[in-house]
Specification:
Largest sheet: 3 strands, antiparallel
Strand order of the largest sheet: 1-2-3
Distance between the termini: 13 Å
Number of strands: 3
Order of helices and strands: EEEH
Number of helices: 1
Helix content: 10-25%
């Protein structure tokens, strides 16, 4: 069993299928509906932040750049808001 302090946590999740904006870039939106978009995983004394897209690719939305910058600038506060299960 993974200890609570080492468990991954979902930061962002894709919306329901009915709420996804369907455009030329979203094909098969039902496959990503309600799946994690950004995940924070503790690793040793640090964290690994996983994005389901390439957030700094030239064709991505501007909002993804700020998520990456926020992660880099606040690297020492990534445990903020983490609630560990009580035994």
């Amino acid at each position: 069993m993974i200890p609570p302090a080492d468990r991954a946590r979902v930061i962002f999740r894709y919306a329901d299928q009915k709420d996804l904006l369907i455009s030329g870039l979203v094909a098969g939106g039902n496959e990503i509906a309600q799946h994690p978009a950004v995940v924070d995983v503790p690793s040793g004394k640090g964290h690994v932040v996983l994005f389901s897209i390439n957030p700094v690719y030239r064709g991505e939305t501007r909002g993804t750049y700020s998520m990456v910058l926020n992660t880099i600038l606040n690297f020492d506060s990534l445990d903020a808001g983490r609630k560990l299960a009580e035994k």
